[in-house]
Every structure is written in structure tokens, then in C-alpha cells.
């Protein structure tokens, strides 16, 4: 039995960090209702290509918002807050999540104490840049810079680089997902709700396991190393005839296997027998390996290294990642009932029971306020006339 289908979540969300979390919960079958301001909405709706020919549903927004419903509500107005309280009660909301600045919690009527008075067992989640006592705004690149992640990314002689994915956003989402699972377990065991505050900064810092211990305990500062590994050699990207491959040699036994291959036999030297020795001369070693790998295709090298059980991987563009059999069978899809446009979405970290039931198809990312009539009308009992009046007053 898929127990998540019985859960309802309202998320006052925009951008990436909270929408990615609710995207993951939607893949579990949770009924996710994203709440936005009726005038401004989620700024990410206007980012990317306008592929559907209508405002507010651009391509960047489509990536992580499938499987959800959407309502608009102006919480700055007393009438909006009254409607919000009705939503919490009548929908029997299990989880409420927000990413607004903490100074706005009470002003909008969404602070934990207020919401607990409305529904005592509610699970409340607040995502902030630097903790609930800080009102400092934060975007993912700022977190990458301040947490040290950016200083660890790039070439040794080059500028600090932004990572290829927004790890502070998505990493915080996954940490929040785990905390919600703990809170749901606690509620099941005790009947009590929970108040969860999670900081994107703290989440980002938690990934720095090796750099922090090395710097604080052993005086070893880690910084940008390009494609090489700070502790293992050879472990880097190498050119081939047709593309790049990454070779990861994790121990001396694997290195002996590499130099047992005829093309690499010239590198079987006493000074390279230990990982420490290879690390000392990593630039020259990698240069010599590159001169060998350039004589082969990527597939030839993969076959060669697989035969000796030394990890190797082709550096794949996203178009080829999509064709990987392990990826292809787990991709998600959503189709717009209005335009007929079908979009492909990144797979879940694991296939849930809900995704199997819906054959990996989620509902299309909702338009701004798309479910106002359904939720305010059918669920809260507002008439069409009342809904129209609320729209006119920009309450919804």
C-alpha cells in the first residue's frame, strides 16, 4: 500500500530548493499544492524558453514542478490568511513548507506556533539561507561561494568555478526530505507534529567531510585540483581519439593491473609503485598517460580497463546519458493536456511504488493558480461568484 497518497502538503515555494523537494515528494504520491502570490508568482516561471507560447510556464520552470497542483493566495491580506487557515483545517494538511525570510513568518501568519494552533500535529518546514535567526537572502551560487564549494571547483591556476549542478539547492532539498521522513515517523509513533528549520549553508558545509577534517585537524588546505583527485593517482580525465574518459585508479594493486596492459607497460617504474609516489609526480604521470590514451578510442579503453577491473567511464554528453539503458527505463514524463506537448523529466533517485503505478507519468507542471477553482471551490466550498470576487481583489 502506498501510504504517501494519503498525505497533503502545501508549499509556499519558488525558485529551486523547495520546488525540488516537493517534486521528490510528488514522486512518492504526496498531494503537493504549490502556493504562489497571485500577481508575481514564481519568478522561475519566466526563465528559459517560452516553448508553449504562453506566459508563465517557461522551460526552466517545467523541469521540477510536474506532479503538483497550484493555487494562488495573497497572504499579506487578512482575507488571504483567513482562507489559508481554512485550507490547513479542511484539507487536513500534513506538511507545510516555506522558504520565505523568517522575518515574514508571523506577518504572513505562517509561523509554526500559529499553524500548530490551527492543526496541532502539523509538520512545519522552514528552509532558509543561513538559519531561522538570519534574514540574509541567498541564492545557490552565493552558498557555493561562502561554503567553500566554489573554492574546491576548477583548475589549480584558474578562477573558482560554479559547479555543474546547484548542489546547495538540491542537497538541502534531500536533507529536508530526510528530516520530513523522520518527522512523519515521529508523528506516527507519538501523534505529535514537528518544527523543522534547515539552513542551506549548514547543508552545504556538511558535504565538506574531507576538506574540513584535513584543514582543521592536519593543517592540510584543500583547494582546486581540476580533474585530478587529491589523494589517488592516476584519477583524472584523459583524451582519447574520439572523446574523453575518466580513469580512477584507487590503489596500488589496480595500478599494477594498468601497467600490465601492453600500451601502459612503459609506466611500470619503481617511483610509481605506490600511490604516494604517483601523487608526487602526478602532472608528468597524467601527461604520459594522456599520450597513450590519445592513440585509442574511448570504447577500446573501456574494454581494456574493464578486463582488468579498473574503473573507467566515458565522459558522456547529456544526449547520450539519455540513451543509457539504465537511465532510459527510469525517465519520467508529463504531457500538457492543453497543447499536447510531452516533456521528459529527470528520473527519481529510486523508482517509487507511486511511479510504477502511474507508469512514470506525472501530471504536467501547473499553470499559475491552475487549481484555484478545484481547491477553493470543491474543497472549501466557495461559489464561482466568490472565487471571481477574490480574483478581482487579487486575494487569489
Key descriptive features of the protein:
396 residues; alpha/beta; Rossmann fold; formyl-coa transferase, domain 3; 2 domains; 6-stranded parallel sheet
> Secondary-structure element order, as H and E?
EHEHEHEHHEHHEHHEEHHHHEHHEEHEHH
The number of strands is 12
CATH architectural grouping of the largest domain: 3-Layer(aba) Sandwich
Radius of gyration: 26 Å
N-C termini distance: 36 Å
Question: What top-tier CATH class of the largest domain fits best?
Answer: Alpha Beta
Q: What structural class do helix, strand and pairing data support?
A: alpha/beta
Helix content: 25-40%
Major sheet characteristics? 6 strands, parallel
Strand content: 5-15%
Question: Quick check: average pLDDT?
Answer: 96
Question: Which geometry do the CA atoms define?
Answer: elongated
What does this structure look like?
The protein is of the alpha/beta class and 396 residues long. It has 2 domains: 3-206 and 326-392, Rossmann fold (3-Layer(aba) Sandwich); 235-239 and 244-314, formyl-coa transferase, domain 3. Helices cover 39% and strands 14% of the residues. The chain is built from 18 helices and 12 strands. The strands form 3 sheets. The chain has a 6-stranded parallel sheet. Strands 7-8-9 form a 3-stranded antiparallel sheet, with helices on one face. A 3-stranded mixed sheet has the order 11-10-12, with no helix packed on it. Helix 2 (59-62) links the parallel strand 2 (31-36) and strand 3 (69-72). Helix 1 (17-27) packs across helix 7 (167-190). The longest helix is centred in the middle third of the chain and has 24 residues, at 167-190. It is elongated, with a radius of gyration of 26 Å. The chain starts with 7 loop residues before the first strand and ends with a helix.
Amino acid at each position: 500500500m502506498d501510504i504517501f497518497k494519503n498525505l497533503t502538503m502545501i508549499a509556499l515555494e519558488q525558485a529551486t530548493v523547495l520546488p525540488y523537494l516537493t517534486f521528490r515528494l510528488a514522486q512518492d504520491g504526496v498531494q503537493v499544492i504549490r502556493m504562489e502570490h497571485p500577481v508575481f508568482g514564481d519568478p522561475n516561471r519566466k526563465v528559459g524558453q517560452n516553448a508553449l507560447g504562453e506566459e508563465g510556464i517557461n522551460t526552466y520552470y517545467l523541469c521540477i514542478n510536474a506532479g503538483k497542483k497550484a493555487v494562488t493566495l495573497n497572504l499579506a491580506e487578512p482575507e488571504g490568511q483567513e482562507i489559508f487557515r481554512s485550507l490547513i483545517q479542511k484539507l487536513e494538511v500534513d506538511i507545510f513548507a516555506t522558504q520565505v525570510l523568517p522575518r515574514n513568518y508571523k506577518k504572513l501568519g505562517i509561523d509554526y506556533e500559529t499553524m500548530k494552533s490551527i492543526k496541532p500535529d502539523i509538520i512545519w518546514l522552514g528552509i532558509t539561507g543561513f538559519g531561522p535567526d538570519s534574514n540574509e537572502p541567498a541564492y545557490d551560487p552565493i552558498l557555493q561561494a561562502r561554503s567553500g564549494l566554489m573554492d574546491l571547483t576548477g583548475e589549480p591556476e584558474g578562477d573558482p568555478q560554479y559547479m555543474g549542478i546547484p548542489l546547495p539547492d538540491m542537497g538541502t532539498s534531500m536533507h529536508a526530505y530526510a528530516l520530513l521522513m523522520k518527522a512523519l515517523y515521529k508523528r506516527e509513533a507519538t501523534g505529535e507534529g514537528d518544527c523543522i528549520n534547515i539552513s542551506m549553508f549548514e547543508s552545504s558545509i556538511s558535504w565538506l567531510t574531507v576538506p574540513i577534517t584535513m584543514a582543521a585537524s592536519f593543517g592540510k588546505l584543500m583547494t582546486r585540483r581540476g580533474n585530478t583527485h587529491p589523494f589517488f593517482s592516476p584519477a583524472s580525465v584523459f583524451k582519447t581519439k574520439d572523446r574523453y574518459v575518466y580513469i580512477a585508479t584507487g590503489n596500488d594493486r589496480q595500478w599494477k593491473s594498468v601497467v600490465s596492459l601492453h600500451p601502459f607497460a612503459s609506466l611500470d617504474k619503481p617511483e610509481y609503485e605506490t600511490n604516494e609516489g604517483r601523487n608526487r609526480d602526478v602532472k608528468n604521470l597524467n601527461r604520459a598517460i594522456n599520450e597513450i590514451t590519445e592513440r585509442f578510442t574511448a570504447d577500446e579503453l573501456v574494454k581494456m580497463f574493464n578486463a582488468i577491473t579498473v574503473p573507467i567511464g566515458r565522459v558522456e554528453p547529456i544526449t547520450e546519458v539519455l540513451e543509457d539503458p539504465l537511465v532510459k527505463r527510469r525517465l519520467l514524463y508529463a504531457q500538457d493536456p492543453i497543447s499536447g506537448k510531452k516533456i521528459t523529466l529527470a528520473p527519481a533517485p529510486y523508482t517509487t511504488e507511486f511511479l510504477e503505478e502511474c507508469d512514470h507519468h506525472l501530471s504536467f507542471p501547473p499553470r499559475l493558480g491552475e487549481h484555484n477553482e478545484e481547491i477553493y471551490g470543491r474543497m472549501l466550498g466557495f461559489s464561482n461568484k466568490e472565487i471571481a470576487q477574490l480574483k478581482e481583489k487579487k486575494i487569489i
